[in-house]
């Protein structure tokens, strides 16, 4: 009886030992799997952080100037020399801008909060007896929304005056105007005489892309800040900024035709310091940032290469002009230098000449066909 009890006790002890070993194995296996999962999660997080850092540092390096190296894009023509000639004539008091057109000035992003935007240019044109208007659009709206608004605006001016409309768009205003012509060319081809894009991010802008690019460091935080600024404070549409990113511009341009009879005007800023030129100081700093980071010339917001529309006549000024110079009068006017109003007049005069030249070529080709 005692032997049987001892055997049973030994059997129970053995069972407990086996159970302990099995439990220890399971605990060790679970611990190893958990450790492996933690290591894998850590690796994924490290790779994600590295990818975000690389994407942030790389920025828009591959996007700037994409229009120039995209196959099938029509090359630009240089009209700088003729522009300077016309500008000199204007400086000498020779004004040849005809009153047979209506001149529509289209402001850019955040222009609704700049009450003097294009005002001096409009007054300058009015004194010469020219019909001039500043487009009343919501500058913080999307490009396609403003394209529709401009279409209606152009049609009202045309039917009200019986004159074709000359467009001069600054910054996003140029992009909005170009979109109107691309989307509604069938309705506007007989009503629009030409388009001048002044410092417009036609190909996109690195500032918009670098702020809103997904997958970079603090991308969600950056987007929340811009949504708060544009949507809540300014009461605009975040798409106004999204539409200026390289991704959106590439998508739009590859889908729609390029605007006809256009003129492009890129520029670079000069250093400006002091409280009286705070805006220009900011532009100069932004231009320095783009130069150091990407090695690109810009006016502070738009690189020169992104401001050149394929197939257009490009005017590359010999002066350094920041992004705001063409629409705001300088506080310190130098009588020896042309002002923004004279520059706009020279651009539109050149645009009129281009339209006449195109019409002559059309007539010649028509005669040859007959």
From TrEMBL:
Listed Gene3D superfamilies: alpha/beta hydrolase
InterPro entries, sorted: AB_hydrolase_fold (IPR029058)
A molecular function GO annotation: hydrolase activity
Record carries keyword Phosphoprotein: no
Any coiled-coil regions, as ranges: none
Keyword terms of this UniProt record: Hydrolase
Xref: PANTHER family: ALPHA/BETA-HYDROLASES SUPERFAMILY PROTEIN (PTHR31934), OS05G0557900 PROTEIN (PTHR31934:SF5)
Protein name: Alpha/beta-Hydrolases superfamily protein
Source species of the chain: Actinidia rufa
